[in-house]
Write a structure and sequence with these properties.
Layout lengths: L3 H4 L5 H14 L5 E2 L11 H12 L12 H15 L8 E4 L1 H13 L5 E6 L3 H9 L3 E6 L8 H7 L4 E7 L11 H14 L2 E5 L19 H4 L2 E6 L12 E4 L2 H14 L5 H12 L3 H22 L5 E2 L7 E5 L11 H12 L1 E2 L1 E2 L8 E5 L4 H16 L1
Parallel strand pairs: 1-11, 3-4, 3-5, 5-6, 6-7
Antiparallel strand pairs: 2-8, 7-8, 9-10, 10-13, 12-13
Helix pairs in contact: 3-11, 4-11, 5-6, 5-10
């Protein structure tokens, strides 16, 4: 009945955990959700007001598949100012979140027999979308602290390599790729003639070093890079579904063609809200980063004192990727069974490492409120003691 590509497709584990936690909450069960990568903040008021204005002004019709020119100009200006990359608005496409943008990239560039290099642990969507394109994911298993190196990439390159996927800061670890390694990775792309898909969705959420876009390194690297980003994490706009890509014109043109047959355009109202997000007051971004930094420090302090767990301090994003390997055994043989028991016993939702192709770990999101984090960690400590 079903196509093979769908029979082999896995449901997003993070979305499944989030849906389950929200359903429990709807039923009045006091779940604390540390599973989803979603800021607990409301979308800033100036962005909401821009959406209201768009509705009142009648901006409720289809747009061009690549998005409204005002938004693509705002993205081009942002990339120049923040990332030191020059793009014409015609080299930019807006989509239904970064996830749909990534899907389009793999569909446009990949064929059966192509290989896409992905470092583990990783967001499951990367692997599943590569499989949907009929390409083969080639994984690199990193060790803590999970910083990708050019040496690791080079060992994975074959004549079939079409794309290297980089995600810095990373989901689920918060690890970043330093500037020296980025330069070496860029050189590998040139030498071996493959593309780089750079998912930079967490670029504004950094704590220990400055984010550098690999496309900014030089012209040759830029010609082989598609930079992906969105507004969900930085502006607390997860439900607005605005993502974008900037890259070589011929690739963006094919993505426009695909998008015209796939979703047409992301919400017109969301696009006008996104213009305000990128061009308006940025105080909310600074405020949220300060809050995440405070929560990061709190989580580091609290989990450092727990026996038999370990982690690398995240350099960016809003996750802690925690090894619970020493806690596993006959009672809980896997991190999935451990996380399930935590959910049932203490009503805490976390994501097991299996969701990131890295068993023996759990990921918690500190994008939750201060109160929820404090209570959740108290319950996790109690669960471990028991």
């Amino acid at each position: 009945m079903f196509a093979n590509r769908i029979k082999n497709l896995s449901t997003s584990p993070t979305m499944a955990i989030d849906a389950r936690a929200k359903e429990f909450k709807r039923q009045g069960i006091p779940i604390i959700n540390l599973g989803v990568g979603e800021p607990n903040f409301q979308t800033p008021e100036n962005i909401k007001e821009a959406a209201y204005r768009a509705i009142k002004n009648g901006s409720t019709f289809y747009t061009a598949p690549e998005g409204i020119i005002e938004l693509r100009e705002a993205i081009a200006n942002k990339l120049k100012k923040d990332n030191n990359i020059d793009y014409d608005p015609s080299d930019i496409i807006v989509g239904v979140g970064a996830k749909e943008i990534l899907y389009s990239i793999f569909q446009v560039l990949c064929d059966k027999g192509d290989e896409v290099i992905i470092a583990l642990p990783t967001w499951s969507t990367f692997v599943e979308q590569v499989k949907l394109s009929d390409a083969g994911p080639v994984t690199i298993k990193l060790k803590s602290p999970f910083n990708l190196t050019a040496n690791a990439v080079e060992k994975a390159i074959t004549p079939k390599t079409k794309i290297l996927l980089i995600n810095t800061p990373s989901n689920p670890t918060g690890a970043m790729i330093d500037s020296t390694e980025l330069k070496k990775i860029g050189d590998l792309a040139i030498k071996h003639n493959f593309f780089i898909v750079a998912d930079e969705i967490y670029e504004k959420l950094v704590y220990t070093q400055k984010h550098i876009s690999i496309a900014s390194l030089n012209k040759k690297v830029k010609e082989r890079t598609i930079t992906v980003n969105g507004l969900s994490k930085t502006y607390a706009m997860t439900g607005w579904r605005v993502g974008y890509a900037a890259g070589p014109k011929e690739i963006i043109t094919k993505m426009k063609a695909l998008q015209s047959q796939l979703v047409v355009n992301t919400s017109t109202i969301s696009q006008y809200a996104a213009v305000e997000a990128l061009t308006g007051d940025q105080k909310s971004v600074i405020m949220m980063l300060k809050a995440f930094a405070k929560r990061r420090d709190y989580c580091i302090k609290e989990f450092t004192g727990i026996k038999d767990v370990s982690f690398a301090e995240p350099e960016g994003a809003f996750y802690l990727f925690i090894s619970i390997e020493k806690l596993l055994g006959e009672k809980y043989p896997t991190s999935s069974s451990w996380a399930e028991a935590l959910f049932k016993t203490e009503k805490i939702a976390v994501v097991p490492g299996e969701a990131f192709f890295y068993p023996g770990y759990i990921r918690i999101s500190y994008a939750a409120s201060d109160e929820d984090l404090k209570e959740a960690i108290k319950r996790i400590k109690r669960f471990i003691r028991q």
